[in-house]
């Protein structure tokens, strides 16, 4: 029997190295996810893979036209059909240790997915709980930090051994 996943992550066709790298980092850090290398696979091929592995959620990482912003699209898969969720996440200022090293990634005290963060960013908190398995008031390798004045969020992934961040980006939730 094939392994089941809670989320399959892939990129759009003809995407950038940044989008592929973010897909690898997300699949490495978020439990029970699988990074499906897209290549020339159609959406139907991706859905077939998802159904074979009894997964019901899909995230597609798309490079925006300006090249500096990534857009995350979320889908629920039911009976071979992908239903797009009514929201998208946009990411920018992407910093990872492959390019800049650990010293360039900003660090500060995390708000994590605590109650204060949940009040400031209810939509993002709901997405993070449902798609990424993060729970309110539970610490892990993923830290979420928010700035109440900017209504922007900074997300970081931490190396659990070194306790150093190795990925950071700004993000915001957009309703369709």
Question: Could you walk me through the main structural features you see in this protein, from its secondary elements to its overall organization?
Answer:
- This protein is α+β, with helices and mostly antiparallel strands and 176 residues long.
- The protein is 25% helix and 38% strand.
- The chain contains 5 helices and 8 strands.
- The protein has helices at residues 17-29, 43-52, 97-100, 115-120, 122-132, and strands at 7-11, 33-35, 57-63, 70-78, 81-96, 142-147, 152-159, 164-175.
- Strands 2-1-3-4-5-8-7-6 form an 8-stranded mixed sheet.
- A hairpin with a 4-residue loop joins strand 7 (152-159) and strand 8.
- The longest helix has 13 residues, at 17-29.
- The radius of gyration is 16 Å and the shape is globular.
Mean pLDDT: 81
| Portion of residues within helices | 25-40%
String of helices and strands: EHEHEEEHHHEEE
Question: Distance between the terminal alpha carbons, to the nearest Å?
Answer: 37 Å
Number of strands: 8
Tertiary shape: globular
What portion of the residues fall into strands of 2 or more residues?
Answer: 35-45%
Q: Which helices and strands, and how do they pair?
A:
Blueprint: E1 7-11, H1 17-29, E2 33-35, H2 43-52, E3 57-63, E4 70-78, E5 81-96, H3 97-100, H4 115-120, H5 122-132, E6 142-147, E7 152-159, E8 164-175
Parallel strand pairs: 1-2, 1-3
Antiparallel strand pairs: 3-4, 4-5, 5-8, 6-7, 7-8
